[in-house]
Amino acid sequence: MPKSVIITCATTGGVHTPTMSEYLPITPQEIADSSIEAANAGASIIHLHARNPENGKPDPRPELFQDFMGQIHRQSDAVLNVSTGGGLGMTREERLRAALAVSPEMASLNVGSMNFGIFPMKAKYSNWKHDWEPAFLDSTRDFIFRNTFADIEYIVKELGEGHGTRFEFECYDLGHLYNLAWVIDQGWVKPPFLIQIVFGVLGGVGADLDNLMHMHTVAQKLFGKDYEWSVLAAGKNQMSFATQAAMLGGNVRVGLEDSLFIGAGEKAKSNAEQVLRIRSIVENLGLKVATPEEARARLGLKGRDKITL
């Protein structure tokens, strides 16, 4: 029997800005409410970033995470996954602050440095809600999203060994799979692994079906039966790539971090709307959606009672 499909929902992220969608959760209460709705819709894992509640800028302060994570934890059974990618331009220590404070079951971990170009989005808007937004986008013309081997080692040892947190390994290109294989060979992390293959970000692998098939083939060769794999695709490719991943036996990620839309030219009004859309597709393929407990068992997580909130 095929395995059930684990749905991750990334509720706000650190890429889109408030001007781009009135539905993007900004405040801790909005992030909590949106995450709980997504969990109720079928998301087993909630991938979390925080924002400054006054202006929507990505914000690493642990107290913001603790505010909305406490609410989500009390009102759902979802796995809480704290980003260590943070916001573009944050230091390694800033990116890790929240995860070290809350000791989550899961955290994201990018396994390679890359150009991360979101500056083309600037041309689509003119009336900005906040002064920081256009400068933030434009800064990525000359920006490297740093994830060196030293950074990776620091995070897996501080958070993985120190807190028992397991990782959503984000791979934006083929070389990132080989970086992760090297990390595994050092004995820094143990299986099972969740590998999130990311498509469609300028600077990473393009959203082309041939690329998905090749990345999946290489991951199979490198990690065998020791891993779970999932796919996210930015923007217009979100649902089509998630569907392909489910058909190939993988897991999926949706959410307003990755796309602000539910269809061509139609903004998603909530994270739950995207979760319900992919859940419907998965179930119409004859597959089941994983519960949070199934996700915990398959990913070897430490349990929701062992986080600090």
From TrEMBL:
Cofactor entry: Zn(2+)
Residue ranges of the TM segments: none
InterPro entries: Aldolase_TIM, BKACE
Record carries keyword Transmembrane helix: no
Xref: Gene3D superfamilies: Aldolase class I
Gene Ontology molecular-function annotations: 3-keto-5-aminohexanoate cleavage activity; metal ion binding
Record has Metal-binding as a keyword: yes
Entry keywords, A to Z: Metal-binding, Transferase, Zinc
Protein name: 3-keto-5-aminohexanoate cleavage protein
